[in-house]
Amino acid sequence: MDSKRAPVGATPTARPADPLPPGRLGRVLVAARIIAGRGLAPGTTRRHPTWGLTFLTAGAGRYRDAHHDEPLAAGSLVVVHPGHPHWYGADRGGWDEHFVVFEGPVFDLAASRGALSPGQPLVHGLPVRRWAPRFAAFDRPRPRTPDGTDAEAVALLAALLEARDTSTRASDRGTRGASPSGAGWLARSTDLLEGDLTEPLDLRAVAGEVGMPYETWRRRFRAETGTSPWAHRSARRLDAATDLLVHTGLGVRDIAAATGFSDERHLIRRFREATGQTPRAYRDADKAASADRRTATNAPAL
Description:
single chain, alpha+beta, Arc Repressor Mutant, subunit A, 7-stranded antiparallel beta sheet, globular
């Protein structure tokens, strides 16, 4: 997001000749994908005048400020607060990233209430194949109306808060332990089952990780949750697909690939079984409902 050379593959958007709508809640100023980025020059410190984020999809590097000196890797999210002195940069091989620059009172309010904090500028371990499309969705032409500009800002704030919540819940599960005699085994089980949904998962290995024979673990998991481990993972995969369907413009084929379905037809079949609708019909209905809510909000009081 900071001073980078113009790399191959960068696709910046939102540079219209006329001014962008101001937005009442906030606005996205620019978003792009960077290939083989470098970050800031070593030995420098930057105070960015606006909000920004960088989400790494490949490569590694480091982030530093007055209170942090941490490695960055694929799945790391850096949130830059206005005026906060910081530095981050890639290792020798560079990194790939999505970045977004944004501003507005909705983000400032989140900071004033502690929902976003310069003391917590980093989120680690986000599954790249799920989160890259979320941030890539902002790499598009900017909305041309104040309502659209506000909606985009709120969607970005929601993504930031969801990313923090995802990381926090994963960390909490990891600190509870995996003792078969305590509740920690269940938290650890769900953590593993909800991991990278695009990769194959050996359920017997999960049982071994929490210290149980497979059949014992499977029976105890069903008794505690009301569903089997396989069904639990399948439900999270469908949740992730629904999330991308609502919050991004990705096609069904790309969403299927990003959430671990074998192909587009597999996702359509599972989605119809769960909702009674095709993914396309669900997306259209969600857009219509959102439009109705905006109309009701803007209707004059009687």
